[in-house]
Amino acid sequence: MTACGLDFGTSNTTLGVARPDGPALCALEGEETTLPSAIFFDRKGERRLGRAAVDAYVEGVEGRLMSGLKSVLGSSLIDEKTQIGSRRVAFRHVIGAYMQGVKQRAEERLGHELGAVVHGRPVHFVDGDAAADRRAEDALRVIAHEIGFREVCFQFEPIAAALDYEQHIDTEQVALIADIGGGTSDFSIVRLSPERRRLIERGKDILANDGVHIGGTDFDRVLALRSVTPLLGHNSPMKRAGLYVPSSYFHDIATWHRINRLYDPKVLTEVRQVRRDAAQPELIDRLIRAIEERRGHALVGAVEKAKIRLASEPHTRLALDWMGEGVAVELSDEDLAERTGALASRISGRIAACLALAGLKAGDIDALFLTGGSTRLAHVRRAIIGELPDARVIEGDTFGSVGIGLSIEAGRRFGPAA
């Protein structure tokens, strides 16, 4: 039975297998090994995945885009239904449709069926709620069985990243693995060595796991709320003194997995009523247009791209011409750090908790292994590295380390692929 490692991320997904000559990720879209975690259903109900899903939405194809699907796990949304065309479909079935598409693409590339999977999972799907965390993993397990995997098991994503890193070391060391992804920030402290990597059972080498439900999509949300949604009327006054436009609409449009809530016809009726009593109705007109034209995902996508540009450029311009000629937001890396600094601090703060769980001090960590897209943000990197100033910093494959490590784990548990 061929097994795979599957990293279903909030922003991107990878799938890999362990071959006799080493682990390898499968190409899932053209020659790309990363597939954006997005699915688009057109009016006929046909689905498109990844970049094709986003392109269809941006090009104005009539249908429904859903992204940030992993964020639904562990929330009440997993048991709710959403409108897709003329049908109401459960969110768990939407996730299943996406995962089925990933599995099919990999099987086509490999030329044979995948019967077993090692699923990556964050240390905490839900912070401080063990029961919700179990429900999230159980939901993912059920979905995996429903799409055809006969054997399903899980591994923490930072542990998977550690297995990738361990392939490249020649001395024993204690490493802290920081996996800052799209939806969660996870940390593990692991004892690694060339000799230990031959062992199948590694439980004694895992010294601590900890994490927090903060990731790249939270940076997108906060940046949108602080920089863009005020142009749509967020925090603007109503005609009646002391009242402000309700904030829930703006939190929905700034949060990937909540955007589609705005497209309920009842919401548009509510917003039009708000406009009549707003002191600046011209701003609410922009919100109405965003809802009518279903611009939510494109709006947050533009914010995400601006954030990514600021990881390598000091300044960027976020054009919003659809709101009016010349409407734009000028952003700097200092703006990003100031507006999302609290998130970076909460992420780095979990390192102390992880060290305490392991019974170690910062100076006991030999290496700090960084992976996940949000480690590219300068202020996030500074916050993390500042907690371990003496550790050697190792750059992992930003989007591939976890998938590679899960592939290694799949080979250990089920044997290498042919």
Write a concise synopsis of the structure shown.
By secondary structure, the chain is α+β, with helices and mostly antiparallel strands.
Summarize this structure as a short list of keywords or feature phrases:
5-stranded mixed β-sheet; 12 helices; 2 domains; 418 residues; 39% helix; Nucleotidyltransferase, domain 5; alpha+beta
Order of helices and strands: EEEEEEHEEEHEHEHEEEHHHHHEEHEHEH
Largest sheet: 6 strands, mixed
Structural class: alpha+beta
User: Low-confidence spans: pLDDT under 50, at least 5 residues?
Assistant: none
Q: What is the total tally of β strands?
A: 18
Helix content: 25-40%
Strand content: 15-25%
Radius of gyration, taken over Cα atoms and rounded to an integer in Å: 22 Å
The end-to-end distance, rounded to whole angstroms, is 10 Å
CATH class type of the largest domain:
Alpha Beta
For the record, the CATH architecture of the largest domain stands as: 2-Layer Sandwich
Q: How many distinct folded domains?
A: 2
Number of H- or I-type helical stretches = 12
Using the alpha-carbon principal axes, give the shape: globular
The CATH homology group name of the largest domain: ATPase, nucleotide binding domain
| Average pLDDT number | 93
> What is the fold-level CATH name, i.e. the topology of the largest domain?
Nucleotidyltransferase, domain 5
Provide structural commentary:
With 418 residues, the protein is α+β, with helices and mostly antiparallel strands. It has 2 domains: 3-170 and 398-414, 2-Layer Sandwich (Nucleotidyltransferase, domain 5); 217-337, no CATH class. The chain has 12 helices and 18 strands. Strands 1, 2, 3, 4, 10 and 11 form a 6-stranded mixed beta sheet that branches. A 5-stranded mixed beta sheet has the order 14-13-12-17-18, sandwiched between helices. Strands 6-5-7 form a 3-stranded antiparallel beta sheet, sandwiched between helices. This is Hsp70 family protein. It comes from Ancylobacter koreensis. Keywords: ATP-binding, Nucleotide-binding.
